[in-house]
């Protein structure tokens, strides 16, 4: 089968520096362009959430300005951290950095991926190989990694966490964790996971979301522990599709909860709760509103892979819901491209 030509440069949308700025203490995602705009658009709801005094507002303003500047410098600083880690870090489990082997993957995941590429494969046959968590919300679960691979990956992640290497925040809502690209695990682990295994599944599960045209990703590990991040507020992902794999350790609490798509009215009415199972991955649409309940005991580590299709997002940025205003970025950026990939029928794998 012919394959699509990779574009030379990935981009982000300019809205990254002004839209969806998360303020944890008020539980809000804000648009920020100026002080006047902030007061006009969010004054009443900010006051209702506790931003009452002039000092409260000035502290919020300073926090937002700092976050905007952090986002502007994010790509360059991340590339610098990646280069330093590559030259100076000594892994505890170097075998993790070898190309992904089938032995690291759960038999159920291998079977579902193999079926998805077989002649005559269809959605009905694939669903017999996955757990359907919610047919209405189109949320699925499947074992992804073996227990031994989860343990080895966790040992490597903890070793890196305890090192003196610089660490970037995994995303704008989580404070603890790491970016797989900076650690050097994108190329050997996440990219083959996306290209060889996830894309055939997603092509059958979510064809209208670009499931068969996934050409980039953003992968990160998040850590929840007492005294650190405990829960995650409601949000949707900057992705067409998402894989969320529980790596460990022992914990109670921290269940995922899902509402409807973010565009829908009353999207969080009667949320669905989904408990984590170590080694298993939850597959869902990026636009599905979701969050994580508070951790009660232990530590929880999860690998999150935001799966992106430029053929979808080049037409509409999921964060500002407008035609993307493209800005060149490092690595995969936010999955946008200036040129449409040379297209063949890669979306129809049936």
List keywords for this structure.
four-stranded antiparallel sheet; 350 residues; 17 strands; single chain; 8 helices; alpha+beta; eight-stranded antiparallel sheet; 31% helix
Describe the fold and architecture.
By secondary structure, this protein is an alpha+beta fold. Helix content is 31%, strand content 25%. It has eight helices and 17 strands. The chain has helices at residues 35-48, 54-88, 107-116, 123-127, 147-162, 180-183, 186-205, 310-313, and strands spanning 10-13, 21-23, 28-30, 131-134, 139-143, 177-179, 216-225, 232-235, 241-248, 251-253, 256-261, 272-274, 280-285, 288-292, 295-308, 326-328, 336-337. A hairpin with a 4-residue loop joins strand 4 and strand 5. The chain is globular, with a radius of gyration of 20 Å. The mean pLDDT is 92.
Report on the biggest sheet.
8 strands, antiparallel
The end-to-end span amounts to 12 Å
Radius of gyration: 20 Å
From N to C, what is the helix and strand string?
A: EEEHHHHEEHEHHEEEEEEEEEHEE
Alpha-beta classification: alpha+beta
Averaging pLDDT over every residue, what do you get?
92
Q: Which stretches are low in confidence, meaning pLDDT under 50 for 5 or more residues running? A: none
Total of DSSP H or I helical runs spanning 4+ residues: 8
Percent helix, as a range, is: 25-40%
What is the 3D shape? globular
Note the beta-strand portion.
Answer: 15-25%
* β-strand number: 17
């Amino acid at each position: 089968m012919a394959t699509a030509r990779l574009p030379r440069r990935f981009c982000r949308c300019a809205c990254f520096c002004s839209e969806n700025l998360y303020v944890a203490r008020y539980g809000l995602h804000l648009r920020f362009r100026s002080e006047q705009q902030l007061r006009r658009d969010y004054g009443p709801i900010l006051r209702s959430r506790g931003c009452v005094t002039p000092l409260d507002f000035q502290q919020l303003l300073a926090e937002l300005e700092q976050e905007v500047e952090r986002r502007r410098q994010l790509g360059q600083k991340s590339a610098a951290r990646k280069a330093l880690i590559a030259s100076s870090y000594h892994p505890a489990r170097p075998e993790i950095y070898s190309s992904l082997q089938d032995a690291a993957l759960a038999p159920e995941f291998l079977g579902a991926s193999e079926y998805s590429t077989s002649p005559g494969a269809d959605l009905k046959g694939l669903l017999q190989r996955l757990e359907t968590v919610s047919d209405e919300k189109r949320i699925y679960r499947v074992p992804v990694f073996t227990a031994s691979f989860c343990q080895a990956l966790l040992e490597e992640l903890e070793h890196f966490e305890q090192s003196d290497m610089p660490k970037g925040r995994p995303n704008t809502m989580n404070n603890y964790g790491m970016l797989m690209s900076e650690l050097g695990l994108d190329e050997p682990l996440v990219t083959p996971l996306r290209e060889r295994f996830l894309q055939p599944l997603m092509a059958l599960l979510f064809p209208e979301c670009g499931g068969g045209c996934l050409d980039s990703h953003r992968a990160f590990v998040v850590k929840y522990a007492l005294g650190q991040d405990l829960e995650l507020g409601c949000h949707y992902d900057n992705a067409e599709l998402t894989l969320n794999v529980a790596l460990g350790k022992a914990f109670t609490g921290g269940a995922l909860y899902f509402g409807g798509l973010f565009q829908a009215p009353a999207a969080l009415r009667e949320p669905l709760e989904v408990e984590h199972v170590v080694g298993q991955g939850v597959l869902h649409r990026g636009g599905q509103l979701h969050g994580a309940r508070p951790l009660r005991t232990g530590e929880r580590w999860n690998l999150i892979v935001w799966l992106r299709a430029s053929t979808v997002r080049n037409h509409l940025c999921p964060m500002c819901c407008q035609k993307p205003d493209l800005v060149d970025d490092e690595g995969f950026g936010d999955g946008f491209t200036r040129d449409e990939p040379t297209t063949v029928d890669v979306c129809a794998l049936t």
